[in-house]
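Please go through the protein record below and see whether the fold suits the sequence. Record follows.
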Amino acid sequence: MKQYILTSLIIGLLCFSSCNDDYLTNLDVTKVSAESFYQTESDFELANVGMYVPLRSIYGNGLADYGAWAMGEMRSDNTCFMYNMNNRGYADREYIDQFIDDANGGAISTKYDNNYIIIGRANQILARVDDADISESARNNYKGQALFLRAFAYFDLVQYFGDVPLVIEAPTTYDETIVGRTSATAVYEQIIKDAKEAASILPSVSEQAAGYVTNGAAYTLLGNVYLVLEEWSNAEDALLNVTGYSLLDDYASVFNPSNKNNNEMIFEVQYAADDTKGTSSYFGVNFLPSLSSPGVLDGYPDNSGNNQYAGWNAPTPDLVALFDENDLRFEASIAFFTGEIYENQPYVKKFSHGCEIFPHCDEDWPVYRYAEVLLMLAEAVNEQGGRSSEALAYLNAVHAHSRTGLSELAIADQSELRDAIMLERQFELAFENKRWLDLVRTGKALEVMQAHCAKVLANPQAYYYPAGVSPTADSYQIDAHRLLFPIPDGQIRINPLLTQNDDY
């Protein structure tokens, strides 16, 4: 995405205060006031790109990474961490997997804080774009993207934290930033409002520059929201508007960095391998086994090692065993390593394509793909009842596509079809941060995760604990309050109106 770095610097220097105090209005030469900045299409282009920048932090943008995969996948039965005897410095990341949640933990604060940075930047654009002297097409594009990203950020927040502060106006004083929690119902209402408006004014994928969201992305988000709310007919209506995309014939190529923003990708977080500019992705390295040198793996150079920041988000033995042996997606998703301390250790291959300068990788993160749209349509149609053949057709469009090597399913029963759709999501969308939220929204989280936790406690070595090491007594104890994460303590300390989730 062009101008990423320049924009990051400019957006970071913007001063959004409009106070009248002389001390506050006499800005130093390193700062640009909002009043003088939002004037031209070029200004809005820079602000728009800056709005996307925090997404890289949310999905993973550092060696000691706290990417969204920790809460979206490692919280579930899909993945877990490889216990590292030589590095015990990232316990808060392990806590996510172990259901020992730390309100001061990095993963929680990274998600919460960066979503609100996106919201704040979106609010600044929305406060000024309608009155700006720019072309109508540019106005609609920048406004639509701001509405989408604000809706997207709030959707992420409300699913993981429940009631959260709803702020849709750009604050002009410090006091206006002190806001209490808003009911999830009201937050969802705003998400739907924003997503609908975004869908109505954003350009199509054929008209939008690569890397920026489209009306298809907005309709996908809207359909996802309705799916969570179990408004099945509304979900179907929204998802039927997602056009201009198609499945790729080769599953592995969907995620290959040489094939970014391909026809299947509806919304992906943009990264660029660079050892100086902070745009590299590292999550592919984080997911490798901890090695003395990553050069033993294809595509990686010899290096002093990745043992300080690897060993995360490893496929569980249960997921490995669950895959159909004939499913071609398995080989594209999971690889195995034997050597050093490992014996046939599975790791995520989907995001492992090597790098020229270790550990600066070029992987983008897939947020929405057309395959998920088809599976959401299958679910929305099936839940309306009496339309099993239509739902099955959407499911088979993914399951029996040439890239899977699998035959068509033949299912007529609504309950069986429901289970088949969720299983297909687990395979097709493995490691893409969907599993935990799927378990929660379908009411399966406690049942599935209590069984999973019991397995880990009964045989920790099967879940990558070294011989002689066992989880602590308070690990892997899940009850209903763990379906939401704690509000970060740092936010509660600075906001007297903010309260903590129950039982944290």
In short: The chain has 20 helices and eight strands. Strands lie at 14-15, 32-33, 79-80, 265-269, 314-315, 334-339, 342-348, 365-369. The longest strand covers residues 342-348. The first helix runs from residue 4 to 13.
